[in-house]
Amino acid sequence: MTFNIDTDIDTVSDEWLEGFIRRMEKENGILAGLDEGNRIIKLSPTMVVKCGYGVTAQEAAAQTFAHQHFDSSIVQIPRVHRFFHSSPCAFGSCGYLFMDYIEGWSLENLDLQVHTDLIPQIATIIAHMESMASEIPGPPGGGRPEGYLWSDEGARTEFHSVEELNTWLNARLATQDKSIDITSEKLVFCHMDLCRRNMIMLPNRTICLLDFGFAGFYPRCFEVVTLDFLTTESVEYTRQLQRRLMEELRFTGNEKEYLALLHRVRAIQARFPSAFGEKVENLLDLPELVARLPSTSLLPSQIVPPPKIEPLSPEDVAAALAALSAPKPKAYHETHPTLGRPPSPPPPLS
Questions:
Q1: Where are the domains of the chain?
Q2: Closest Cα to residue 148, out of 195, 193, 188?
């Protein structure tokens, strides 16, 4: 009996699928991503798998929510077919997210000066997401917020109410004698990673939205301020989109003030991710913050010296160099040029 990934994906074990993915990656290479990080591998003409240690059940749940609730005439979302984690190891567990393959043009390869309809179209998508709301902040179905606003280590906690989120923000702003009150703000669906590489234009010029790893329900200003943290994006793109959003969504004076305060929150969280409500591992890393906290009482036993770093052995160096020089698998479009994305960009609207 011949296995068909499109129809038989629910009939086989996780272990069998892991082996199948390894075979497909060896034969075809990766469609997108990094060999050492999250990567996308094409399994059939209509299905891909996104896999890596950064692929989570939260992402699968958020993408499933978006696919079920978004208006497909406004924005397309790939359907999730299956998700599972591999067995835990020293590095964590690898997530496998199976979804529809979407063929089109990445927006990062389209000139904003030529395709002048892109910014208005993205703004329309964000306005559409605002129609979906929740009483609970964070990812759909629960979980700890992750992404640019929360720094590399995430929020490190799960929020059960907007009041809890507000308290979390003010704990950080208090170190700079600032405060915020978002308790009356509506919590709407936010993507929180609107890089152009996460959007694909389909042949009918509808946009498909990808990568829901940071998505959740937050005040709409969270989506706008996060555009400032997309380090791979051009200032031209982020500024145009921010201006468009604040005009079309009619941002209030309070919301504009929130943007500046959220910049402060991110800076504090990025520098002192462990300093709030948790044991501080190294007091020497945050003397100015400790001086401003109202109730900090660290014992000498809590001050941990930095670990001693042993030099690499010649064998370790040789192994690292060999790994770097090893041949990398070819990208999918190099081995299957006729099945890749369309080679030429779409024409602009006349």
A1: 11-101, 104-278
A2: 193
pLDDT in tens, 25-71: 998 889 888 766 789 999 999 999 999 999 999 999 999 999 999 99
CA 324 to each of CA 278, 317, 320, 328: distance values in angstroms, whole numbers, following the listed order: 38, 11, 6, 9
* Threshold 0.70, pTM exceeds: yes
Residue 27 CA: distances (Å) to CA of 8, 14, 24, 204:
21, 20, 5, 32
Write the CB contacts of 13 (distance below 8 Å, at least 6 apart in sequence): none
Indicate the fold that domain 11-101 takes in CATH. Answer: Phosphorylase Kinase; domain 1 (3.30.200)
Residue 1 pLDDT class (50, 70, 90 cuts): low
**Does the 104-278 domain belong in CATH 3.90.1200?**
yes
In the numeric block, the tokens 């059939």 are attached to 44
> CA 293, CA 169: separation in Å to the nearest integer?
14
Q: Provide the sign of the torsion angle of the four alpha carbons 54, 98, 142, 168, taken in this order.
A: positive
Amino acid at 110: L
